[in-house]
Design goal:
Layout lengths: L2 H8 L1 H23 L3 E3 L3 E3 L3 E8 L6 E4 L2 E4 L1 E5 L2 E9 L6 E9 L2 E10 L5 E4 L13 H16 L19 E3 L4 E4 L2 E2 L6 E4 L5 E3 L4 E9 L3 E7 L4 E8 L1 E2 L6 E2 L4 E4 L10 E8 L2 E3 L17 H6 L18
Parallel strand pairs: 2-9, 10-12
Antiparallel strand pairs: 1-3, 3-7, 4-5, 4-8, 6-7, 8-9, 11-14, 12-13, 14-22, 15-21, 16-17, 16-20, 17-18, 18-22, 19-21, 22-23
């Protein structure tokens, strides 16, 4: 009889107890490793606003969401009290009703509802020179190229999340053109304003709202000298009508770093910064993202209302903020 077999025969109860204890310990470890994280997502979000979905756990985990037919992985990082995953999402400016948000983790997938709340968007009716309504035929090819290039840039999505909240305000100027404003030029309705116009004289430094990588820096017909910075997870900021570039494609920038100077290039009539913020290709209002906690419900910010009342049937020459941003 071998010593091992003799030991097992002599102490079967002790071996059994140890085996049971080991099995229970392994089960506990596996249960902890595969336990689903705790999710946090808003039930209501206004049109044109970004929101953040978070998941937390005491152990490392992987998770993702499905939003508007896109699957996006959460960026998971370690904190003092555990692990947190986050992703920024967006409700389109024209969204209505309930939208499906699917949460995926180790226990499977479940879908919750996010209600898109309507916003009473501001409207401007302006009388302007004809060239500000219909671009001349000779620039149509350039406009098409600009649009195609922008679409390719905005379609990219790096899994890393370099954005942090609150965002850094790019210039200190007040708001001359709020996000979402409906513009009617010479009686012709135009697309909603999918950015925020911020006042500033030519040469004013324009700062990056968050850390990221420069993915576009070039002159375009509508936007003039424009810079785009990729902040990861499909979050991209845009700085338009610049008088000068301070970065080039491929440059790494930090939150608050100067990317260019305010100007009046492109199809505008006066100097200002047009700030755009896109989340998975959807334009959102950047104003609520300058403060914590993040406000996901509401219309134009109080600053917008003070800086730009909502007149109707306005007939005047284009003001310093420009007619197209």
């Amino acid at each position: 009889m071998s010593p091992v077999f003799s030991f097992l025969c002599a102490r079967p109860g002790r071996v059994l107890r140890r085996a049971v204890a080991l099995t229970l310990a392994l089960a506990a470890v596996q249960s902890a490793a595969w336990a689903a994280p705790r999710w946090d997502a808003p039930a209501e979000v206004s049109q044109g606003r970004a929101f953040v979905v978070r998941a937390t756990d005491t152990q490392p985990f992987t998770a993702s969401v499905v939003w508007r037919d896109k699957t996006i992985s959460l960026a998971v990082t370690e904190h003092a009290d555990g692990w947190e995953g986050r992703v920024m999402l967006a409700v389109p400016i024209d969204a209505k009703g309930s939208l499906n948000l699917t949460l995926k983790d180790s226990e499977g997938a479940r879908t919750v509802k996010v209600e898109a709340l309507s916003v009473p968007w501001h409207e401007d009716r302006l009388t302007v020179a004809p060239q500000y309504v219909t671009p001349p035929a000779e620039v149509q090819a350039r406009i098409k190229r600009d649009g195609e290039h922008n679409a390719r840039v905005l379609a990219s999505m790096r899994p890393e999340a370099e954005w942090t909240l609150p965002l850094y305000r790019p210039v200190k100027g007040s708001i001359s053109g709020p996000f979402g404003g409906r513009r009617v030029f010479n009686g012709q309705p135009r697309a909603p304003h999918k950015g925020t116009d911020m006042r500033g004289p030519t040469g004013t430094p324009a700062h990056a709202v968050a850390a990221g990588t420069v993915v576009l820096a070039e002159p375009q017909y509508y936007s003039g000298n424009v810079v785009m910075v990729d902040h990861g997870q499909g979050v991209i900021s845009m700085y338009a009508h610049l008088s000068a570039f301070d970065v080039k494609v491929g440059d790494r920038v930090e939150r608050g770093q100067i990317v260019g100077k305010v100007g009046a290039t492109g199809r505008v009539t006066g100097p200002h910064l047009h700030l755009g913020l896109m989340v998975q290709g959807v334009a959102v209002d950047a104003m609520p993202l300058y403060a914590e906690p993040l406000r996901v419900v509401g219309g134009p910010t109080p600053e917008d209302k003070i800086a730009r009342p909502a007149p109707q049937n306005k007939a005047a020459a284009p003001g310093p903020a420009g007619t197209k941003s």
